[in-house]
Specification:
The structure is a homodimer of 145-residue chains.
Chain A lengths: L8 H20 L6 H13 L4 H8 L3 H13 L3 E4 L8 E4 L1 H21 L5 H17 L1 H4 L2
Antiparallel strand pairs in A: 1-2
The structure holds a DNA duplex (30 and 30 nucleotides).
Chain lengths: 145, 145
DNA sequence: GGCTATTCAGTGCAGATGCAATTATTGTGA
DNA sequence: TCACAATAATTGCATCTGCACTGAATAGCC
């Protein structure tokens, strides 16, 4: 039966990833933010103020897109832009309002994860997560051509 | 240590999924098609002619987007549109040219998967894939609110 | 110190996408 | 049979996104 597309890893990964994102976005609708915005908030909450260049790989979004995204988020009062030490650099920081919002959303995200893996043991979930990290690293070999 | 966003399942899934897609898209560039187009071709190759409604959940793409996508693919001579039995329905089918293209791309996709999981045993890969399917099913519980 | 290269962010533009409304066809109940 | 509901695909519109280019600031080299 050779190669089954619907049984391939890229397909299965994309399918479950997109699905989870879609479902989460529906809940986010009440808070008037998008999925990438949530990811930015969550990263800033965890890692503290970041430059766009550093934020980009963490949220897997192009810098140009991120730049515009931050503009919108600033208008919403969720983050602030400041020019610190380096004049080229911009430091993106959570505002108290943004911090409060991400605080409210974290339980929701946790619930999504819990439902997704409710049929697995803790050890299995741990293995799965480490596997996803390893695969991400393995993909580096494809990067340089 | 409470909740770590970068250690959460949705984040890890999205990150590796998007990354794999980006890398694959780079290779697809030589063939002048996009990632969703490849997915449509692969599904049609495996499952045979499909309606838009059936295709949509399989490629995780909105029907409206799919409709326009098929228009472009038809112009490229990769697929054909036909109105069969039901007058409302459209049957999307691979052309010989589309079939030849997907045939060329399948080894490439297989290589991507192989590199991604090269540090895992066959049994581990099998478990991982079944886990991704189960999670996708578990997410149904979040669908209906 | 001054010139060039590099780094970082922002913009113009074209294409992709989703939601909502529209059109066309089929199914159904009185 | 006829009106009305349901299904399938398409289109209008606003938004999102990435690529390529531009602008601004710093670093490195002579």
């Amino acid at each position: 039966m050779s190669y089954r597309f619907t049984g391939s890893l890229p397909y299965l990964l994309n399918r479950v990833g997109v699905r989870m994102g879609e479902l989460f976005l529906q809940r986010l609708h009440d808070f008037d933010i998008t999925l990438p915005m949530y990811r930015v908030l969550a990263i800033l909450k965890q890692e503290g103020p970041q430059r766009l260049t550093d934020l980009s790989p963490m949220v897997t979004v192009e810098i140009s897109t991120l730049s515009r995204l931050v503009t919108v988020m600033k208008k919403k009062g969720l983050v602030s832009r400041t020019r610190p030490d380096d004049g080229r650099t911009v430091s993106i920081m959570l505002t108290p309002s943004g911090d409060a919002l991400v605080q409210k959303l974290m339980p929701l995200a946790a619930e999504f994860e819990a439902v997704g893996v409710e049929t697995f043991s803790d050890a299995e979930v741990a293995w799965l997560k480490s596997a996803l990290k390893i695969i991400h690293t393995n993909l580096d070999k494809l990067e340089a051509r």
